[in-house]
Amino acid sequence: MTEQPVLVETRGRVGVITLHRPKQLNALNDALMDQLGAALLALDADTGIGAIVITGSAKAFAAGADIEAMADWSFMDVCQSGFITRNWETIRQVRKPVLAAVAGYAMGGGCELALACDIIVAAASAKFALPEIKLAMLPGAGGTQRLPRAIGKAKAMDMCLSARMLDAQEADRYGLVSRVVPDTELLSQTLALADQIAAFSLPALWAIKAAVNRAWESPLSEGILFERHALYERFASADAHEGMHAFLAKRPPDFQHR
Length: 258
Ligand code: CAA
Known about the structure:
This protein is α/β, with parallel strands linked by helices. The chain is 45% helix and 16% strand. It is built from eleven helices and ten strands. Strands 1-2-3-5-7-10 form a six-stranded mixed sheet, sandwiched between helices. It is globular, with a radius of gyration of 19 Å. The termini are far apart. The structure holds acetoacetyl-coenzyme A (CAA). The site of acetoacetyl-coenzyme A has 22 residues, from α2, β6 and α4. Acetoacetyl-coenzyme A binds next to α2, β6 and α4.
């Protein structure tokens, strides 16, 4: 039987996707990215799921796009097939929170995949780099765009132009990751965080994710307008009334995700 490059399981309201090409350090080939996209869309559509975790192995979250697969592609090959656009960008359609649990190498496309997630929990062993320059390539899965937005132009230029690798502590200091945890607790702490998030009202999570992403992509005035409409929409939500009344009654809320 051929090995599946992506493993999917559900734990309560959390969907867990494990990248699984151990011999290639989870290098991201088409089969893996197709399955990752399909798994993300299926979990996003599942009403029993409130948050999604993507993780890799202890040695590598992912070592980047599959260099062996790409080495002989031509310009027309990538144009015609819509490389990256076709399957890597599926993650942008996901409305639920996506958490990356990163141990070991997150390099090139692996770093870019983590950057496309909403929260990055890094194990102490995590290492982040965009080393495409060493191949005379370019970070082409959002790296040149998301990295400067995440850590600023100076640090992003340093990483992209010199292939500088950041350890977890540096990545935390620069704002590339959300939290750093011991390696032995990476999955348990990420799942606990995902559980906590998934218990909140799903429509409120959708709205917050969309509003924060809007901050990346638009001028402040437009973002504020988007946020204001998102806030007004909360008043059409049964969960929002339940949340506020539960607070006032000093009882836990009973969210119906509506
Ligand atoms: N693609 C294909 N195979 C890869 C790979 C990749 N990105 N990264 C590692 N592998 C393979 C290696 O070829 C090796 O295979 P063999 O056992 O058959 O030789 C196996 O995985 C183990 O790798 P190493 O022996 O190199 O392991 P290491 O511990 O010595 O080094 C590493 C680990 C530093 C991550 C090193 O493997 C490495 O530098 N990998 C390449 C990282 C890289 O350049 N990523 C960017 C890719 S381009 C990209 O991502 C473009 C984009 O933006 C979309």
